[in-house]
Structure formats: C-alpha cells, structure tokens
Amino acid sequence: MLLPQLDDGITLLDVEGGRGVPILQSLVLDHLLLHDGPAFWVDANGHATTTTLAQIAPSQRLLNRIHVARGFTAYQHYGAVCDLPTAVNKSIQTSTADAGAAGRGAPSRDENTSPHTPALIVAPAVDAQYRADDTLGETHAKTLQARTFARLATYAEGYDIPVLVTRNERNEFTEPVGTAADHHLECEQTRMGPRVVGEDFETLVYPVDDGAYYQTTFAYWRQLLAARATQVGVEPTTSTPSTPTPEGVGTGVTADGETVAATADPLLDAWTATGTGGR
Known about the structure:
Layout: E1 9-16, H1 21-34, E2 39-43, H2 50-56, H3 60-63, E3 66-70, H4 74-82, H5 84-102, E4 120-123, H6 128-132, H7 138-159, E5 162-166, H8 175-180, E6 183-189, E7 194-197, E8 206-207, E9 213-214, H9 218-231, E10 250-253, E11 259-262, H10 266-272
Parallel strand pairs: 1-5, 1-6, 2-3, 2-4, 4-5
Antiparallel strand pairs: 6-7, 8-9, 10-11
C-alpha cells in the first residue's frame, strides 16, 4: 500500500514543508477509486486546482464525481460548509434520476457504499479564511472556525464517511483541530517522495519507472531482514544483553552457533575466537 486508507470520521493531514496539494489530491482520488459516490470539496486557498487534478487523475470520469465549492472569506467558507447538506441532497436527486432514466447502472465496487450518497468530504486549509479575515476579531474567528469544524464532524457521523482536512499552520489557533480529529496523518517530503505516517500506516516503499519498488528507511530493512531470518531459521539475537559484557558492546553468534562477547573491534573478536585458529 502506497497510500493510507481513509477511515470514517475526521482525518487531519499535516504536510511538512508545503501545502501538499498533490498528496491531498492523491488521497482523494485514491479513495474515490475504491468507493462509490461523489466527493464534496469545500476549498480554500486553491487546493482544488484542476491543473494538478487533471494531471494525476487516471480517468476524467473520476473528476466528474468531485463537487467543489469555494469560500474566499471566512463567512463564505462557513456558508459553504453549512450549505453542504443541500448540495448533497441535490446531487442525490440528480444522480438517482439519471440512473433511473438510463436503466440499471454499473455494479457497485463496494457493497457498503452507494453511487448516490457521498463517499468523502474534503476541507483543506480549514483555518485559512478564519485566520486571514481582517473583519473578524480573534475570539470571533476561533468561534466561527470551531462551528465549521463541528459541522464537519456532524457530517462525518451522519453520512458515515471520512472527512479529510488540512491546516495552514500548526499553532495555538489550530490546536483544537488536531485535538478534535479522529485520525492524524503526517506527510514528510523526502528525496524519494512523500512519506506518510499514521496510526496504522507508514510509507516504506517507493515505486520506480520499471514497476519495481525501492526505499531507504531503516524500518523497512529491519522488517525485511527479520522476515528473512525467520524464513531461514535464524534465531534473532537480543538487542541488549541481560548482563553487561566486560569491555564489550554486546554479544555475537559465530558460524558454529556459539554465543560470544563482542567488543568494539570485530577483527579482534575474530582473532580471539576459540576453535578458529586464533589465540
């Protein structure tokens, strides 16, 4: 798995070193590929840019399932969030009418979702307009942002779907967002590509052009070598000895299976090992 699964409830995505528009859009498109139904996107600061969406989307039909509303001020953003149930009901009426006129639709890819009801709600930069609006005092801005987030939480529970949000900054103003989120994803931009870490997910591999995979995190190699050791019947050594080894740094295992004390000099270990010709 290269991308994490979005579970029901509010998922907060924090991206280090940038806005993370491609990774956000990738998570949305990946979820729509696995689930039926449209996505409703309440945008701020241009995260729903069609340029990158069209570039990374594997199918134009997928883009037709994303409904976008934009709020350029705090009140516009809050109003778009409040009007979301109306937009959902209108979408359901339209899609069911179209399905009825066309006869039986395509089979559902997920028995737990419907092609008519929402599959995902997206609200990137959920703090942006409330932070930037000069007409709001700090207390009023925090209150309006809290009401917005409360409505998103209500939609997540009412529709039994994921709500994916991001925030522009991680500070006292957006601390309530992190506290109230049900799930948290952290994305770090690395030389190999974006690395996502969550409660039950961690990016360990990266694809290359020939279809193979590679990566450089130590966690992957530890898992790989541990699995290989189990396969060949090698008993893993303890990370630290129960009693300190005099003038040593731990224990080692010889080719004959003998456990010996290891010093900081591996050449000295080999030279002094018993039964190997050493002294």
